[in-house]
Design a protein that fits this description.
This protein has 291 residues and is mostly beta strands. The protein is 0% helix and 50% strand. It has one domain: Methylamine Dehydrogenase, Chain H. It has a 4-stranded antiparallel sheet, with no helix packed on it. A 4-stranded antiparallel sheet has the order 2-3-4-5, with no helix packed on it. Strands 6-7-8-9 form a 4-stranded antiparallel sheet, with no helix packed on it.
Length: 291
């Protein structure tokens, strides 16, 4: 069993960020260069699947697969959302959101739509994926529901919620989770009983929500894999456990594949914390912690 998967040699600052599982393969994105890598469960080294900069993809963050076999890719400050056919590798669509400033960070699929978190504004974008992709619309602004202004808000991980027609979204800066109702386009903070979760990537394993929980307090950076239980309606939750991860690794996102969590070690905080950036960049595969 392989516990660590290596990205192939490339630029020294690849800084992988997003991950998505599709069949027996998984895809990993480069936040700095836009490369997309493809890995297989039984092969220890990933391959370049989409080269850096292709199709205007100079940044790549959150990834997800859709029901039609496409890989959707968030383009961060480019404002683009890319869709690639996973069978052929060809570009199916490139959709651009209508905003002067944007940071398209993470993406999930629910009921025929893709929902995209924006880290530069407290906004969730939406685009249809039940046929042709797009166009993108500004679906809900969390500001009227109590989210802080853009400079104090950093929306990040996004997944379907436990209740039908709902999403769970991290605000990493405010260290809270949001529940978004996709029927009414309304939002509310999840009541975690006073606990804080500075969530980056989110992934469900059965009824447990795991977060790459990365926070900084008084100059001290901590990295956790945090497990949460949410109520059936997603309005309340509690932390089930926290497991510390190396700061030098800076895990950003995770996918659940073949009974294990595949965790991206971005190393984004390595230099800030006084650690050299190590090579190769890796994805760790681990059994979900016992709860």
């Amino acid at each position: 069993m392989i516990d660590s998967y290596a990205l192939p040699p490339g630029p020294p600052d690849v800084m992988p960020e997003g991950i998505a599982a599709h069949g027996d393969a998984f895809y990993v994105s480069s936040s700095r260069h836009g490369t997309i890598y493809r890995g297989r469960i039984g092969t220890p080294t990933l391959e370049v699947w989409q080269p850096a900069g292709a199709d205007g993809r100079t940044h790549a963050l959150g990834l997800t697969g859709d029901p039609l076999g496409r890989l959707l890719v968030c383009g961060w400050e480019t404002g683009h959302i890319f869709a690639y056919d996973t069978a052929t590798g060809t570009l199916s669509a490139r959709v651009t959101v209508e905003a002067e400033v944007t940071g398209l960070n993470d993406i999930c699929i629910l009921d025929g739509y893709a929902y995209v978190s924006d880290s530069k504004r407290p906004v969730i974008w939406r685009l249809a994926v039940d046929g042709e992709v797009g166009p993108a619309e500004e679906f809900v602004d969390l500001g009227p529901f109590g989210a802080p202004d853009a400079e104090d808000c950093f929306l990040n991980g996004i997944v379907p919620g436990p209740a039908p027609g709902t999403l769970i979204v991290c605000d990493q800066a405010e260290e809270v989770l949001w529940r978004v109702d996709t029927v009414t386009a309304t939002a509310e903070r999840v009541d975690l009983g006073g606990a804080h979760v500075a969530g980056d990537g989110l992934v469900w394993v059965d009824d447990v929500l795991y977060a790459c929980d990365n926070s900084e307090s008084d100059g001290v950076i901590k990295m956790w894999l945090t497990a949460l239980s949410l109520s059936a309606d997603g309005r309340t939750g509690k932390i089930l456990g926290r497991w510390e991860r190396p700061v030098a690794d800076t895990p950003t996102t995770a996918a659940y594949l073949d009974g294990r969590l595949f965790v991206v070690n971005s190393q984004l905080f390595a230099e800030r914390s006084g650690y050299p950036v190590g090579h190769p960049f890796t994805v760790s595969a681990l059994t979900p912690p016992h709860i």
